[in-house]
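I am writing to request your help with a piece of structural work I have in hand. Thank you for your consideration; the sequence and its tokens are set out here:
=====
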Amino acid sequence: MINFEMPGAPREKSIVEIAEEIEKAMLAKKEKKEKDKKMYYELFKKYFEENGAVEYDEWQSKLGEIARKNGKIIVRRENPETFLTVFKNKKNLPIAFSAEHGKQPNSALLGNDLAGLRLALAGGFGKIGKGSVAITVGFEPSENLSIKDVPDGKFTNFSGSERSLVKIVQGDVPFEKMKFFLLRMPYGLFPESEMTEDELEKEPASIQRIFIPEKYQKKEKGPESIASWS
């Protein structure tokens, strides 16, 4: 995504850098033009589609379908620059902790009722620009990952049913274990021409679209029950 050539040669801008430039220009205008919103959204849409992912606008029903088939799906809001580079190059997604903050909750079990998604969106990493465009990744556990429950007596801000969903994850997510990518954009920056009738009527704070890398996925087997890791 970022291409360094000979010293002094122009550097190819990343999709995140391009997105931030478009967003900055839109936010500077009192009235957001539909053509600018569409250009902004299609920047991401085309990027995903050109790299083998299929878009679904009914994201909640599609996520519910995925959750029913596999109760072990983990969700995590990911650093956009890191994720988009990994996705384009079909590489493993590294998940690590900084020496400054140490190990802490950084992911959540999606759950059959999708309750873990809210936890992932509230925490996690990076957003693109001031408009807060975010990307959440859904992936299956693998032998390359350490998935731990929240230790007793620690991180007490998580309580009740949500505490059982929060996970401490470290390691590498194999590319083929990534099951979906959820793109969240502010309502005011999303093109009306791409909204569903329900979205146009309710005007939610944000619009979400799910992209599934179907080109690289094997057919799912039957439903699995939700498991707990320790």
Confidence is low (pLDDT under 50) at residues 1-6, 222-230.
